[in-house]
Amino acid sequence: MTENNLFARLKQGLAKTSGLMAHQSDNTESFQQVLESIEDGLLMADIGIDTTEKIMQQLHTRLKSQTPNHDEIRQCLQQTLYEILEPCNKPMLLGRIKPFSILVVGVNGAGKTTTIGKLAKRFKKNRKSVMLAAGDTFRAAAVEQLTTWGERNDIPVISQTSGADSASVVYDALTSAGARAIDVLIADTAGRLHTQNDLMSELQKVKRAMQKIDNDAPHETLLVLDASMGQNALRQAEQFHQAMNITGLCITKLDGTAKGGVVVAIADKLGLPIRYVGVGESTEDLQVFDAMQFATALCDGEYKA
Fold this sequence. Notes:
- The protein is of the alpha/beta class.
- Helix content is 50%, strand content 12%.
- Helix 10 (231-244) links the parallel strand 5 and strand 6.
């Protein structure tokens, strides 16, 4: 898929959010009224109070000596958003580690298992051998879903019986991946609320089990967040990061929500690498995060003069 087509899908996926952020004017408003309207749009897009204030301060500073038109305001907003997002613009690099292990975590319903399937397909397309670990042993449907992804793409899946110890499953998978010289192992885990300390401890147990084989494992702890959760997704990220030392984020379901501004809030508050964003159902709609394209798409809503 071409770069233009990917951007078009991103822009379409962020349409609900960018539509809220798009200032609408009848050309009779004062500059201050225009800025207040933009501020309202940022808040409605779930960028959050603190980050919105930071953005508005930048706009005031950069535009105070001008009488800007809509395009100039939009370009200034786009640049301000880009500067917040750019430090998080760090794609996942597999390197030469073999197997490169990815532990996928998140709350129920965030899209972990689907994301794993899409990532597996992406890696295989890039000529990497892949193995999946069905570490979500509490939800039978998760094992079935992961197995289906594996069969569809000719990717081995390591699993055990329902209710088995998740750490044991992932340990076995990492052992098998090493023995078979697999390039990438992706391990699923059971969804859990960020407030469930006992379940968060189980994730730490999985991590310790992996480190018995490889001190550096997992090489990526990828947190999958549902953008439609808005500011709650930020709180999830904070708690998971505290418990698991998250190394990368995948933010899904941006196409189904007008709360996509939370990506900016997460970038501002945590500065964690954003590896992927999900803007649709197809495999191609799981895109490598690009800060400039994301900022541009957020500011590309339909303006009505």
